[in-house]
Amino acid sequence: MQPLRIALAQIAPRLGELEANLARHRELLAEARAGGADLVVFPELGLTGYLLQDLAAEVAMRIDDPRLTRLAAGTAGCSAVVGFVEESADHRLFIAAALLEDGEVRHVHRKVFLPTYGLFDERRFFAAGTVLRAVPSRLGVGIGLAVCEDFWHLAVPQLLALDGAQILVNISSSPGRDVAAVNEVGLGTATSWRTMMRTYAQLTTSFVVFCNRVGVDESVTFWGGSEVIAPTGEARFSAPLHDEGLYTVDVDLAELRRERIALPLLRDERPEMVLRQLERIVLERAGLAPDSTAEPGAGPGLDVAPEPADARGRRTA
Q1: One of 148, 149, 227, 259 is an active-site residue; which one?
Q2: What total number of domains does the chain contain?
C-alpha cells in the first residue's frame, strides 16, 4: 500500500481579508499537490482570520459561493480541508470546515461546541452546528472533521470513529496561554492538546491530524504546533511552535488495520448501552424522571435528603 502524504498548512491568516487568504490557500494547495500531497489541511477560519466579531457577516460564504467553488477546483487528484465562515440559507453564520475533493465541495462540518469562557466569545457571533458525521473520501478511508473546541468534548472523536472515521481531522485557531517552563514544551496549551490528541488516537485507534494556525490577530497570539498522530498514540510529525510553513509527512494506512485488529476497542464499544444511559440522564436533568442518583426523600433538584429534626427543630443526625 502506498503511503498517504499529508500536508499541514500552518499559516497566519490575515484578519478579515478573504481574497488575500483565498489566494494564499490556492498557492499552498498548488505547492502541496506538486509535492505529491494526498491530503492538505488548513487551520480553523484560515480563509478569514479568527477574531472576526462583527466582520463575520462580511466574509461569510454560502457552500455554493463561486469563490469556494474556485478553491475546490484546485483539488483535482487530492483532498483538502479548509476553514471558513459559512452562511446558511436562513442567514445563520457558522464556523465551518469543508472537505474539498476532486474539484468539489464534498462535505461541510459546522463547529458544534462554541466556547464562551476566557477570551472566547464565539456564541455571540455564531450558531452552533447540530450534526456529527464521518464521510467516505477519495483516500479510501473515512474522514471525521472537527473544529478546535469540538475536541475538548470527548463524545466528538468517539462518535466520529463509531460512524466510520479512520482519520480524525481537527482544524484549530488555538491561542497560546499558560506559558511556563514547567510544561514539556513551555506552553500549557500545547501540552494539553498533545496529551488529548494522543489519547484520542489510542482510544479510537485512528490517525489524528491537527492543524493549528500561527500569527497574531490584534493582541492574540496563536502557537501552531500542528501534528499527525498514529493510531498507537505516537507522533508521526510535530510542527514547530509559532513558525509558519507547509509541512508534509507520510503515513502508512496499514497501521489502522494492525492496530484495530490488535486492539479492538471500537468493536467492543456498546453505543446502545450508552444511548440508554444518556436518555436516562437527559430525562432526569429535565425533571421528567426521578433522579436515580439522589437519596430517598431528597427534594426536587437535590441529591441529599434533609436530616431529620427533633421537636425543637434541631438536627438529630
Answers
A1: 148
A2: 2
pLDDT digits (tens, 9 = 90+) for 199-220: 999 999 999 999 999 999 988 9
Out of 245, 265, 285, pick the residue that ends a domain.
265
Clarify whether 104 is annotated catalytic: no
Is 279 an annotated catalytic residue? no
- My answer on whether 301 and 248 are in the same domain is no
Q: What are phi and psi of 309, to 5 degrees?
A: -125, 150
Please enumerate, as own/partner, the contacts of 235-240 that have beta carbons within 8 Å and a separation of 24 or more. Answer: 235/194, 235/198, 237/8, 238/194, 239/8, 239/10
Instruction: Name the strand (E) or helix (H) holding 81.
Output: strand 79-87
Amino acid in position 218 = E
Q: Which of 265, 285, 307 is the last residue of a domain?
A: 265
Of 187 and 135, more confident = 135
Active site residue 44: yes
By the 10 Å C-beta count (0-12 exposed, 13-18 middle, 19+ buried), 90 is classed as exposed
What is the spatial distance between Cα 267 and Cα 231, in angstroms, rounded to a whole number?
A: 15
The neighbour count for residue 230, using CB atoms within 10 Å, is 21
For the entire predicted model, the pTM comes to 0.91
- Name the residue among 79, 73, 127 with its Cα closest to residue 107: 79
Distances (CA, A) of 190 to 28, 126, 172: 25, 26, 12
3-class DSSP state for residue 216?
strand
| Catalytic, out of 111, 122, 227, 259 | 111
* 294 and 245 share one domain: no
245 and 293 in a single domain? The answer is no
Host domain of residue 126 = 4-265
Closest CA to 82 of 90, 70, 92: 70
Could you write out the DSSP letters of every residue in 91-109?
--EEEEEEEEETTEEEEEE
